[in-house]
Amino acid sequence: MRLKSIELNGFKSFAKKTTLDFGSAITAIVGPNGSGKSNTAEAFRFALGEQSMKSMRGRRGEDLLWNGSQLIPRAGRASVRLSFDNTDRMLPLDFDEVAIERVVNRDGGNEYILNGSSVRLRDVTGLLAAANIGTSGHHIISQGQADRVLSANSRERREMVEDALGLTGFLYKREEAERKLAKAAENIREVAALRRELAPHLRFLQGQMKKIEDAQKLRGDLMTRALEYFKRESVYLRLARTLLEEERSSPASESITLAQRIEGLRAQVAAKRNDAGAGELVRLEAESRGAQGRREELLRQVGRIEGEIAAHERLARTVGPGLPAEETLRFAEEVEKNLEQALALPERELKERIKSLLSAARDFLKRLGRQDSPQQSADDLLEKKSRLESELKRLEEEEVRVAGAIRDLRHEIESEKDASREAERELFAAMARRSELEAVLSGLTAREGALAREADRFKTDIAEAAALAGHGLLEYESYEVRGADGERLSDADIFDDLPAGGQGRATQEERRHKIERLKIRLEEAGASGGEEVVKEHREATERDQFLERELLDLEQSAESLGKIINELSETLAKRFADGVAQVSTQFDTYFQTMFGGGTASLSIVEEKKSLRGAHIEDDDLEQADDSDELSDEEEETEEGIEVSVSLPHKRLKGLHMLSGGERTLTSIALIFALSQVNPPPFLILDETDAALDEANSKRYGDMIEELSKKSQLILITHNRETMSRAGVLYGITMGSGGASKLLSVKFEEAVAVAK
Length: 755
Prior knowledge:
Layout: E1 2-9, E2 18-21, E3 26-30, H1 38-47, E4 77-85, E5 97-105, E6 110-114, E7 117-119, H2 121-129, E8 140-142, H3 148-151, H4 154-164, H5 168-271, H6 276-319, H7 325-342, H8 347-368, H9 374-415, H10 422-469, H11 491-496, H12 503-524, H13 530-595, E9 599-612, H14 618-627, E10 633-646, H15 660-677, E11 682-686, H16 694-707, E12 712-716, H17 720-724, E13 728-734, E14 740-744, H18 747-754
Parallel strand pairs: 3-12, 3-13, 8-11, 11-12
Antiparallel strand pairs: 1-2, 1-4, 4-5, 5-6, 6-7, 9-10, 13-14
């Protein structure tokens, strides 16, 4: 990489655009004091990103702008543009020529431009660091700053040496990695805090999910058991009803025929008006019929009461105490009706209807909570049933009495061998047969009543189970019941397994009781609102998993950054140590050249510094709590550079004992040594030779020529010996308007100007 030119426009004393081309290995800039030639060195600093106004001999940004004169108005902006030949790609840009420009406005605003594009200062410094052009300014040395490398403390001197050795790029990378590591640590704390905040809610949701999962298992168990129970019960009720209809058909038909015959015989018997026996027979037969009618009515009432008692017992198990019998029953009937209607609705509407029913149930419980219990209502019904059963017993006794009277009368009539009694005998026979048929039909009616109650209970059970287990229960008809051997059972097989009053019905009733217990457990599990909980749990789990992955990525990133920092630190330490050793060797060589003997060296020293108010991590706090010791002051060790010199024929004990000239020569020797070990692309020396005598000027010139083999040199000088080593000379003069001007000066003329 080679410096091609510098262009100044409105910068300090350069009011108008001024361009200096650098086509030689050594370029000298000469001119009288006050002409502005040193402003060119400051222009280099400015363009390369210098932020210290003091280094550019100013106090604020507008001090860098041409301030105007009588002939030339003041500038509103100042710019400096450096052009580099980048054919060797030392600057990591795919351009043969790279132009870096910095612009400052009178309001203090800065702008950095790279090949015409606006960039950040960080971009400029990072780019230049790759070419060993750092921020410490080791490649731009002015007369007043030559001594800085000696007067600086060991830490500042270390920074200069690092910059000169080209370690700035590594330092930038390490600092960037440390910034990223600090940011990663902050993000780790934030993400960990978010997970800690989320954890209690997630645990609560997991508890809710456990309840929902338990409810799902109960619901699945309920579904399996209920499907088999409902299938078996449906087959039983359907086939039992068919069987009853078949059993009733013949006696019912015979009963109708017999009733017609009895009516005819009764008319014949009634026609014998003077026959006391015939009249008594008609009366007794009518009394028997009346007693039978009342008994059948009472039996129907007892059946209804038994159904009500069963309903109350079911409600007592479900809703507990506090509900009156009549209102509870009406409410139950209303719920049953609504559930039957709801089961025909689509799933979404079914859910809405169930929610409505639940709301109505809550209102009902609240309104009637302090009234009589279902158990009390059931007790009332039992008392009523007891009264009806007493009445039934009385009617049965009445029937027995009437039957006895009829039997006695029949015996009396049959004992008479009179043919005129044939009608009475036939009537007795018909009445006896009718009694047999009525007993059969009465039994069938009782069985039908019981079957009807079982059918009603079956509907209620379906509605309740479907509300808890879902619509799938309504498909019970398609469920396949299998026997112990795993074979599918036919409807006939199922019915044969459930004879009324047999062990099969007892087993079926046990199935129902298990289903009832499952329904109660499912209601207690509180399965309502499950979809919302599942959704919230899924979202919270996904959030926690995302945070966990984020935390893992951050921890892995932090670990990787830690390794990078360690590797960079090791590389820096090794290169720094090797570089210091090489610089020390070169320093000793140049020192002996400048002083004609003696010794000079650089050494790495370690210094301790105190850190007050240092950041303390949580782990440190825990350790401090354990030991009850926490110091407000911590120590950190850092490396510095120590300079040691020994002049020939003198005994010195420190740099502070050197004279001004000796310090200048020592500084130059060290600067040249730094430039030799890791040569910068260009080196600007601003009157660093001002204090040299003729003999030392020659040595200085020899060293310049040696340096120019590795670095491009721009020399601002008054020294003739130095000028003589330059390939190109630029002259700077001050015009009448107070602005610096660039002149073409021959070498002989330059020597005269320097005088």
